[in-house]
From TrEMBL, chain A:
One Pfam family this sequence matches: ABC_tran
Disordered: annotated segments: 225-244
Gene Ontology molecular function, alphabetical: ATP binding; ATP hydrolysis activity; transmembrane transporter activity
Species of provenance: Qipengyuania gaetbuli
Top-level taxonomic group: Bacteria
NCBIfam families: FtsE
Subunit (UniProt): Homodimer. Forms a membrane-associated complex with FtsX.
Role of this protein: Part of the ABC transporter FtsEX involved in cellular division. Important for assembly or stability of the septal ring.
Protein name per Swiss-Prot or TrEMBL: Cell division ATP-binding protein FtsE
Record keywords, A-Z: ATP-binding, Cell cycle, Cell division, Cell membrane, Membrane, Nucleotide-binding, Transport
Length: 244, 310
C-alpha cells in the first residue's frame, strides 16, 4: 500500500491563529492513515480542540497545506465541503445536540442530511439508541437528558452513518467507566470496519484500553510524536511511551 | 459484549435533497412564524387594493376614451333664434357632405334644456336664456386634429358664431389625472412589494440568528447551503401562503365594499371603472406574487448569510 493510498489526512506546516492573536497551532505537520486509531493528547489549552476543528472542517488554517481524502481542502470551493463533511463523524466536546429535536431525531440527522429514506433509518437509529442504552429515551429532548446521556446521543449521532473518519473531542468525559469502555469498544469496532478514529482525551486509562492505538501529543500548539504515530510507516505501539 | 450496531453499508454520500417531512422539523416552527404571516397579510391586502384601484382607473380611462374617441360637438352661439336655426341647418348640411364626418346629429332643444336643468331649472326664466344650438358629430375612422381644424375653417365660413370642440380635448386633463392616479397605484404596488420583501428579509435574518447553532450543526454534519435554505423557504412558504390568502380576502372585501358605494352613485363614467373577470384574475394572482417574493427573499437572505460561514 502506498503512502498516497493510505493517507486520509495530511497537514503540512499548518498554523492557526484567531484574529490577530498569536498562533494557537504552529508548524503542525502530520499524516493520518486510513484504518488507524489515534489518540490526541495534551494539557488543557494545548490546542487539541483547535486541531480537531481543522480536522472536521469547521475552520480553515491560517497558513500551511491541508489535504483530506487526497484532496487539497485549502483551495477547495466552499460548496464542495459538505461532501467531505459527510464522510466524517464528529463528537463535539459540548455535544452540540439540536435542542428541539428528540434523541431519535438528533441521531437520525446525519442520515437525513445524506438523504437516507425514513423507512431505512428507523431500524439503525433504534438499534443505536438501544446500544448506547437510551432505547427508552428515544423521544426525550436533550434538555431532559443527563450529561452522560447527551454524550451518548452525540456519539451515536457521530457514528450512525459509518464515517470514514471519526473525530471525537473528549468523548468519554461525562460517562461512567463502564459506559466509557462500551463507547471505546464501539470506536474500536468502527475502526475494525475501516474507519479512522481520532480521539482527543486526557484520560490515560482510556488510551491504555486501546493497545494498538497511536498517540499524538500537543504541547502549546506544537505537535510531538511520542509513539512514532506520525511517521510512515507508523510504528505500532501499545500505548507505551505515552506521557504518564 | 454485544456487537455495536452499524449500518450495513456506509450511507450514500451524495448531496441528496433534504426536504419534506424530514426537513420540516429541523427548525422549530415558532421561531420562523411570529409576525410574518400578518405582515404579508397586510401587504397583500394593500397591494390587492392598489392593483384593483389601478385596474379600475385603467378601465375607466379606456371606457371614457373609447366613448369619446372621434367625437366632436359644434356649438352655434347665436342669440337670435331664427338665425341660430338657419346657421344650424347650414352647418349640419355642410358636415353631412364632408368625407371626414361619419354621422351628424342636431341635438334637440329639449335635450339641451334637460342637460342644463340641474343648473338653470325649468320655466320661463330658462326660455329667456339664449341657449346655443349643438350638433354632435362622429368623425370617420382615422380622422384627427387636422380634420377638425379643416372643418373649423369651413364651418366658420357658413356660421361665424360656430365653434367646434373635440370631446377628447376637454377630457384630456381628466384622463391625465386618471393616468397619474394609475401610476401612483403602480408605484404603491412596487413600494409594497419592496416593503414586504424587507419585512421577510428581517424575519429571515432573525430566524437565522435564532437558529444559528442548529444551522452550524447541520453544516458540520454535511448539510449544504441549499438544504438549509430549503428549510427556511418551506417555513416562509407556509407563512406567506397563510398571509396571502388572508390579505386577498381582506383586500377583495374592501374592493367589493368600495365598488358597492360607487355603484350607488349611478354615474355613467364611474360605471366604466368596473373590474372585468380578467382583472379579478390579476387580483387573485397578487398573493401568489407575494408568496414568490417572500420565498425568493428568504432564500437569498439565508444563502447570503450562510456564505459567510465556512
Amino acid at each position: 500500500m502506498s503512502v498516497q493510498e493510505s493517507a486520509i489526512v495530511q497537514f503540512d506546516n499548518v498554523g492557526l491563529r484567531y484574529g490577530t492573536e498569536r498562533e494557537v497551532l504552529s508548524n503542525i505537520s502530520f499524516t493520518l492513515f486510513s484504518g488507524r486509531f489515534y489518540f490526541l493528547t495534551g494539557a488543557s489549552g494545548a490546542g487539541k480542540t483547535s486541531l480537531l476543528k481543522l480536522l472536521y472542517l469547521a475552520q480553515r488554517p491560517s497558513r500551511g497545506g491541508m489535504r483530506m481524502f487526497g484532496t487539497d481542502v485549502i483551495t477547495m470551493p466552499r460548496d464542495q465541503l459538505p461532501k467531505f463533511r459527510r464522510r466524517m463523524g464528529v463528537v463535539f466536546q459540548d455535544f452540540r445536540l439540536v435542542d428541539h429535536l428528540s434523541a431519535f431525531d438528533n441521531i437520525a440527522l446525519p442520515l437525513r442530511v445524506s438523504g437516507v429514506r425514513e423507512s431505512d433509518l428507523e431500524g439503525p437509529v433504534n438499534d443505536m439508541l438501544e446500544w448506547v442504552g437510551l432505547g427508552h429515551r428515544a423521544d426525550a429532548r436533550p434538555a431532559t437528558l443527563s450529561g452522560g446521556e447527551q454524550q451518548r446521543v452525540a456519539i451515536a449521532r457521530a457514528v450512525i452513518a459509518r464515517p470514514e473518519i471519526l473525530v471525537a473531542d473528549e468523548p468519554t468525559g461525562n460517562v461512567d467507566p463502564e459506559m466509557a469502555l462500551k463507547l471505546i469498544r464501539l470506536f474500536e469496532a468502527l475502526n475494525r470496519l475501516g474507519t479512522t478514529v481520532v480521539v482527543a482525551t486526557h484520560d490515560v486509562q482510556l488510551i491504555r484500553k486501546v493497545p494498538e492505538s497511536l498517540i499524538m501529543r500537543l504541547d502549546k500548539g506544537t505537535l510531538s510524536d511520542p509513539t512514532g504515530a506520525l511517521r510512515y510507516p507508523p510504528k505500532r505501539t501499545s500505548g507505551t511511551g505515552m506521557p504518564e | 459484549m454485544k456487537r455495536p450496531p452499524t449500518l450495513g453499508r456506509a450511507v450514500d454520500r451524495g448531496l441528496a435533497p433534504f426536504r419534506g417531512r424530514r426537513a420540516a422539523h429541523l427548525l422549530p416552527r415558532t421561531r420562523l412564524g411570529g409576525p410574518v404571516p400578518w405582515v404579508i397579510a397586510i401587504m397583500t391586502a394593500l397591494t390587492v387594493l392598489a392593483v384593483g384601484g389601478a385596474l379600475a382607473l385603467s378601465n375607466l380611462a379606456a371606457s371614457a376614451r373609447g366613448e369619446l374617441a372621434g367625437s366632436a360637438t359644434v356649438q352655434i352661439l347665436e342669440a337670435d333664434p331664427d338665425l341660430r336655426a338657419e346657421q344650424t341647418e347650414r352647418v349640419a348640411a355642410l358636415l353631412r357632405q364632408d368625407a371626414s364626418v361619419e354621422a351628424v346629429r342636431i341635438v334637440p332643444e329639449s335635450e339641451i334644456a334637460a342637460l342644463l336643468e340641474p343648473w338653470l331649472g325649468t320655466g320661463e326664466a330658462v326660455e329667456a336664456v339664449p341657449l346655443p344650438a349643438l350638433i354632435d358629430l362622429q368623425l370617420a375612422a382615422g380622422a384627427g386634429e387636422a380634420q377638425i381644424e379643416a372643418l373649423e375653417g369651413r364651418i366658420a365660413a357658413a356660421a361665424p358664431s360656430a365653434r367646434i370642440d373635440a370631446q377628447e380635448a376637454w377630457l384630456a386633463p381628466v384622463l391625465e389625472a386618471l393616468n397619474s392616479l394609475r401610476y401612483m397605484a403602480f408605484a404603491l404596488i412596487a413600494l409594497l412589494a419592496f416593503t414586504g420583501a424587507a419585512a421577510v428579509w428581517l424575519a429571515a435574518r432573525n430566524a437565522l440568528d435564532g437558529n444559528r447553532d442548529t444551522i452550524e450543526i447541520v453544516h458540520l454534519l454535511g448539510g449544504s447551503d441549499e438544504q438549509v435554505a430549503r428549510v427556511f423557504q418551506r417555513s416562509i412558504l407556509f407563512d406567506a401562503l397563510a398571509g396571502g390568502v388572508l390579505g386577498l380576502a381582506l383586500g377583495t372585501g374592501a374592493i367589493l365594499l368600495v365598488a358597492t358605494r360607487f355603484a350607488a352613485l349611478d354615474s355613467g363614467m364611474v360605471a366604466g371603472g368596473t373590474l372585468l373577470p380578467t382583472d379579478w384574475a390579476i387580483v387573485a394572482l397578487v398573493p401568489l406574487f407575494a408568496v414568490g417574493i417572500a420565498v425568493y427573499t428568504a432564500r437569498m437572505t439565508v444563502l447570503s448569510s450562510l456564505r459567510k460561514m465556512l
